[in-house]
């Protein structure tokens, strides 16, 4: 049953028109295309913001966003984006990464890697740790990792490199002891990524739908579980822009549920969700 027919059971009125207006704004600001099946999820995500702002009606909140309230925009983006991630997720990507960096390092000690859609930072830290674990001397190379996300709050969290200790409980002891430092005092029960790994990464907030003030060219780009939320038109635009930031032979790594079919002809598949720029 549609939410508009269940108003008596909801804390806030949320009409079909409200949902359509929100869908439009979400698409404009994030590129995420919400299906009609996401109406209830959308209500739940934004109802928290109405409570926080003490707004009693969804239409008033939507007007606030539509009128360009900058203070609320960060909360708006954060509310709708999904930030599930973990260290060394899809581990085969990091095995490939270590081999690829070794291969590049035989010719040049200058390497540029981009983690696009870094969320709370587990991906770029996994990149740095994987490289340094396999190639300790890489700390002395001209090696830089750019990590970006459209959610400013996530970028701030990621740059600190501090996590609840349970987030690394499943990692091998060698990784835990070598690359994470236990917190004390106020940070008891938490861990922080070792300085050596943090020093390789630059965190920035960046909306992939807007201009990209990044230099490149990148040897390796991670863009995993990001484009799955975009329609094909947006995906084509993004992968065209990624291609423009890579030289021939550069590698693009995407998520396990994603592929470049009917989206880009600039890459060839060389491994499980691993592509090479033509």
TrEMBL record:
This protein's record includes keyword S-adenosyl-L-methionine: yes
Species classification: Bacteria, Pseudomonadati, Pseudomonadota, Gammaproteobacteria, Cellvibrionales
Enzyme class of the recorded protein, top EC level: transferase
SMART domains in alphabetical order: MeTrc (SM00138)
Residues reported to bind S-adenosyl-L-methionine: 83, 85, 89, 123, 149, 207-208, 224-225
Organism from which the protein derives: Spongiibacter pelagi
Keywords: Methyltransferase, S-adenosyl-L-methionine, Transferase
Protein name: Chemotaxis protein methyltransferase
Record bears the keyword Transcription regulation: no
Described function: Methylation of the membrane-bound methyl-accepting chemotaxis proteins (MCP) to form gamma-glutamyl methyl ester residues in MCP.
CheR-type methyltransferase domain span: 7-278
Catalysed reactions, semicolon-separated: L-glutamyl-[protein] + S-adenosyl-L-methionine = [protein]-L-glutamate 5-O-methyl ester + S-adenosyl-L-homocysteine
GO MF terms held by the record: protein-glutamate O-methyltransferase activity
GO biological process entries: methylation
Record-listed E.C. numbers: 2.1.1.80
PANTHER family, alphabetized: CHEMOTAXIS PROTEIN METHYLTRANSFERASE
InterPro entries the record matches: Bact_Chemotaxis_MeTrfase, Chemotaxis_MeTrfase_CheR, CheR_C, CheR_MeTrfase, CheR_N, CheR_N_sf, SAM-dependent_MTases_sf
Pfam families named among the record's database cross-references: CheR, CheR_N
């Amino acid at each position: 049953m549609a939410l508009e027919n269940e108003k008596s059971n909801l804390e806030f009125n949320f009409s079909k028109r409200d949902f359509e207006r929100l869908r439009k704004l979400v698409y404009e600001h994030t590129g995420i295309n919400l299906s009609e099946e996401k109406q209830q999820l959308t209500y739940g995500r934004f109802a928290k913001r109405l409570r926080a702002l003490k707004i009693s009606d969804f239409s008033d909140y939507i007007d606030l966003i539509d009128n360009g309230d900058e203070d609320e925009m960060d909360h708006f983006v954060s509310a709708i984006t999904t930030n599930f991630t973990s260290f060394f997720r899809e581990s085969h990507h990091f095995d490939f990464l270590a081999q690829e960096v070794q291969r590049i390092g035989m010719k040049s000690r200058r390497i540029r890697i981009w983690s696009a859609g870094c969320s709370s930072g587990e991906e770029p830290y996994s990149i740095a740790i994987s490289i340094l674990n396999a190639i300790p001397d890489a700390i002395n190379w001209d090696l830089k990792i750019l990590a970006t996300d459209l959610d400013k709050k996530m970028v701030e969290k990621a740059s600190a490199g501090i996590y609840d200790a349970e987030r690394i409980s499943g990692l091998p002891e060698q990784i835990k002891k070598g690359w994470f430092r236990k917190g004390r005092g106020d940070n008891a029960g938490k861990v922080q990524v070792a300085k050596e790994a943090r020093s390789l990464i630059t965190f920035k907030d960046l909306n992939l739908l807007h201009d990209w003030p990044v230099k490149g060219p990148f040897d390796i780009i991670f863009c995993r579980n990001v484009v799955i939320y975009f329609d094909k038109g947006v995906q084509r635009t993004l992968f065209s822009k990624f291609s423009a930031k890579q030289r021939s032979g550069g590698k693009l790594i995407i998520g396990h549920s994603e592929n470049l079919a009917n989206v880009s002809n600039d890459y060839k598949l060389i491994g499980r969700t691993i592509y090479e720029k033509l």
